[in-house]
Automatic annotation (TrEMBL):
Pfam families cross-referenced by the UniProt entry: LigB
Species, as recorded: Punica granatum
Transmembrane segments: none
Cross-referenced InterPro entries: Extradiol_dOase_DODA, Xdiol_dOase_suB
Protein name stated in the entry: Extradiol ring-cleavage dioxygenase class III enzyme subunit B domain-containing protein
Domain of life of the source: Eukaryota
Entry keyword set: Dioxygenase, Metal-binding, Oxidoreductase, Zinc
Source organism phylogeny: Eukaryota, Viridiplantae, Streptophyta, Embryophyta, Tracheophyta
Family: Belongs to the DODA-type extradiol aromatic ring-opening dioxygenase family.
Amino acid sequence: MDTFFISHGSPTLSIDDSLPARHFLQSWQHKVLPELPTAILVVSAHWETAEPTVNVIGGRHPTIYDFYGFPDPMYKIKYPAPGAPELAKRVKEVLVAGGFKRVLADTERGLDHGAWVPLMLMYPEADIPVCQLSVQPNRDGTYHYNLGKALRPLREEGVLIFGSGSATHNLRDLRFKSDGSVVPWALEFDTWLKDSLLEGRYDDINHYEKEAPHAKKAHPWPEHFYPLHVAIGAAGEDSKAELIHHSWSLGTLSYASYRFTSTSNSASS
């Protein structure tokens, strides 16, 4: 199973048909991944913890509306996907085996919008078990790459691992009166990201703060970038990146999304 990084952009992705990224995600099963996963592990930018934490839900997931001031219909959307307690157990096992000695479990947390917004478009039937894994904003890119590296065996078990974040994420510099043009700093960072990924310069991605142009402008806080590191690590250092969607919104918000395909025979090698 390949791994993915999805730029989920604005929560309005859940209702706004004018966003190309919405149509991309709606075509997921037809154009991107026809093979149904046994379960889905989402690493969402919207769950931040000090230690790696998985949600362990035995029934159907509650839908978390972790956004404010948006249109009322968005607060009525439900994505009652079944929980994946067995996957949560496996995630803890492989992380501990990978050197992450403290892995916590949350038995109450549902799906935040970094998970349910893309999932409602990718798998609208909400019938595939889902588990979430948190990010640690107090750590760095290499840490999250290694987090993904520990998760590699799950790919051989039919688990879809995807990071849900954003290629650029500066909410203080959105251009609501944009004429459709892209602000130079955002374009430069996004282009650097694309070139680095397609050329396999994953170590540069791990140290993006030093290597990327306008890194702090593109990501004033790192939580929306770290799911990318997890997706790369889970695919492996030999993986090939593919840009599977690219669009812009509000002048600075990139919806660039990537697929990572391992070129080795074993996910655990």
